[in-house]
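It is worth pausing here to work through a concrete case rather than discussing structure prediction in the abstract. The textbook approach is simple: state the sequence, then state the predicted structure, then interpret. We follow exactly that order.
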Amino acid sequence: MKQFEDFRLDTANQCLWRSDVQIALPPKPFAVLRYLVENPGRLITHDELLDALWPETFVQPQVLRTYMLELRKVLGDDASQPRFIQTLSKRGYCFVATLTEHDGNARHLRSASSDLGATAIAGREKELAYLNDQVQLLEGGERRLIFVSGESGIGKTALVDTFLHHLKTSLAARVARGQCVQGVGGKESYYPVMEALSRLCASQDGETASRILARMAPAWLAMGCAPDAASAARTAAQEKPLGDLCAALEELTADKPLILVFEDLDWADDSTLNLVSALARRRARARLMVLVTYRPPKRSAEHPLKELRQDLLLHRLCEEMTLAPLQKPAVATLLQRELAQAELPPGLAAFVYQRAEGNPLFVIALLEHLIAQEILVRRGTDGAAQWVQQVTFQEMEAGVPDKLAQMIELEIERLSAEEQQLLEAGSVMNVAFPAWAVAAALGRDAAEVEEACDELARRLHFMKRAGQDDLPDGTRSPFYVFTHGLYREVLYQRQSATRRARRHMHIADRLGALFRGREAGVAREMAMHYEVAGDWVRAVDALRVAARQAEQRQAFADAAELLERAMRIAQNLNGVEREAAAQEILGESVAAREVRNLPAERPRKAPQKV
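Step two, the predicted structure:
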């Protein structure tokens, strides 16, 4: 159960607890509170909340206000000084209370947010130390701009959260934080700036911030701190130079440093990027740190953030920190902290590391999946309780946790139908796939497919070009890889069985055509495609070809294994075909054993010259 102050959200029984008193909530207010609690610390827009709770149903946004009033009454929360739910006028809500995990049924993970200094920073000690070093430079009036980049789920926000958490205890600093939102950037100028100023004005230093903004940048004060006048203020601010706001922010650093955080800057509007640029280029000394997170923008080679970052790096006006996937020891540490036990179940760290490929978000999702499926269960009582595995991880069926599958599906659905087809066809091969295989699966021209795949590789963060294959006809075909195997699994499983079978057949046929006369070299791979496609006869034939080649190489163990596999596949044939194929395979197996057991022929002496 999620706990905040003396409240506990009981999702199993759909109720709220205060200390030991159960509070019954109607279904919809409970659903609203649950959604906010499960998405803490970020803006939940009205549209997101309506879509989540009333999918495919039109509901007036005013209904949310009614439920919020009811929730505030139950929680004893004050909208003007919120302890739990902050209202961001005309935008949405944010759950601001600190959350911990109440281990009511001993089946939940320990919340990462309950110990930011431990769980969230697993494997990021060097990065945290670097940020702390940058803070020290602020004391000399040296402004800092730091880009924190990395793929989705790599831990950018967790690193920033942990950094700010430590900062509270080591340095008196003001913090203003804004979130760039997909779909809003480009439509609403200065969106994250508004949120940052709003939070700054509502903080403990709000009175000082409001006074300086009122004196030096009144239009920006109205924009951030008087939401009712936000529209007119935004228009007024756009007509003024950014210097007013920059000067006000610099003035705020006179008595203590200011940390200005913008998250997901790849979704920012041009106006916000202009502000970041201006703050980086100004020469006045200021104890100001601008800390931004972003996912490398591959949607367009001319993305304005890419241009801004390259220019600032060129002129040494910023620093960049790219978060790499966690190494195996860091994944093990993360699992130990999440499970709150030093000794992990055998094979857990290796299994999760291999499947998650070092992505912290994937690590947690996989762990939650193992617990939900009761592959990991908690045994024992009180302090002696330990997480143990019910089955070995090798016996598990491959699959993608629902949370990750939904996240990946959302990314895929944003692509065009043609782009989705290209990726699905690539997934039929494996994590790595050549352009010729995609062309064969779709029955399209190879050159066109290569151009389309190159374009996708430039734009998508989960696919990249990895090299070229030399084909038997002397041509070359580029090949690509999915950066995470989980993306490949989702793309593969979203295709119908009939479509997958047809594409496997096309790829196998193309392999045979490319290697005509040398089919034995790719027979094993052809057999795999034919087997998945359900063409048992051709799968058996290909395996027998591969077995004969193995015999020629005197790899008799390989030949025996291939023939055993062919025998298993042959069991799928009808009676007559099955019997005939079994007899032929058996005969080849006997012959292979006889050849294997023949004594080695003695080498003949070379004839002597007389």
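Step three, interpretation. The longest helix spans residues 575-597. The mean pLDDT is 82.
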